[in-house]
Write a structure and sequence with these properties.
The chain is of the alpha/beta class and 266 residues long. Helix content is 44%, strand content 15%. It is globular and about 60 Å long.
């Protein structure tokens, strides 16, 4: 079994597609075990407990002033394991988000809060994408994604950074991808405001959210304050117009609201 799952490293280069993700998460198990210096058996033991472990690191309800510190300094490599388990166990769902990304991705692409890099790596392999800019607070995540890009022959098209203040990032992007991130932010509406200034007029933003801590508190690291959520949706409706897509997933596609559009409706 170990030999089957942890085979030789793949050199996929520009041939990284949805089928490759469905096969093995872009060689995720082997890469994660090697990067974390774990045996295949150790990795398989840790993956099923990863969500529980990450939740245990959380001191309770989020202090909005410390959310950034939590993700940058406290979670360590626990977030890598939790995200890997999610991507491997929900491969069909993630595959549809990759199909959606294929439909819209072009030019300069921002992957905001990109985690283990599934979408950033897939985007870097697309001929319609000029450059991928992967942004994530967690230095462990950034290091892993940089390493994965080297492993998969995609390093030339993928650059990483801590946040949008990084001076090497473009002023505006053709595509913004922000998946499973907004519910972790103390001010998601403010993040939408930033996206509205960084998205080109003919660009597309792919976003989802889950402002819910779970029926049994299983997601203590999500914000769910009603006023925060209401402000988020009001901001979304002010700045973005939804674009239909056929995939039955929670992720939605948006372009900037045309100037004066709301006034014309009234």
């Amino acid at each position: 079994m170990s030999e089957q799952i942890y085979g030789e490293s793949k050199q996929l280069g520009q041939q990284l597609g949805v089928d490759d993700f469905l096969a093995d998460g872009f060689d995720l198990r082997r890469q994660l075990a090697e990067f974390l210096k774990l045996s295949p058996e150790e990795l398989e033991q840790r993956l099923p407990r990863s969500t529980e472990h990450l939740a245990a690191l959380h001191p309770g309800a989020f202090d909005p002033q410390r959310a950034e510190v939590f993700y940058e300094q406290n979670v360590g490599d626990a977030h890598l394991l939790e995200l890997a388990a999610w991507h491997l166990n929900s491969a069909d769902y993630i595959a549809d988000t990759l199909r959606l990304q294929q439909s819209f991705a072009k030019g300069e692409l921002l992957d905001f809060g990109g985690g283990i890099g599934s979408h950033a790596l897939a985007a870097a392999a697309l001929p319609t994408v000029k450059q991928v800019w992967y942004v994530d607070l967690n230095p462990h995540n950034r290091a892993f994604v940089e390493w994965r890009a080297q492993q998969l022959g995609l390093a030339a098209k993928l650059a990483t950074g801590r946040d949008l203040d990084d001076p090497k990032l473009p002023t505006r992007f053709d595509t913004i991808v922000c998946l499973d991130v907004l519910e972790h932010l103390p001010d998601p509406a403010g993040q939408l405001e930033v996206f509205a200034t960084r998205l080109k007029e003919n660009g597309t933003a792919l976003m989802n959210w889950y402002f819910f801590q779970g029926f049994k508190g299983e997601y203590p690291f999500h914000f769910d304050d009603p006023q925060l959520v209401e402000r988020f949706f009001l901001t979304l409706q002010r700045h973005f117009l939804e674009v239909f897509h056929p995939w039955l997933i929670t992720t939605r596609a948006y372009r900037l609201m045309p100037k004066g559009f709301i006034d014309r409706l009234e």
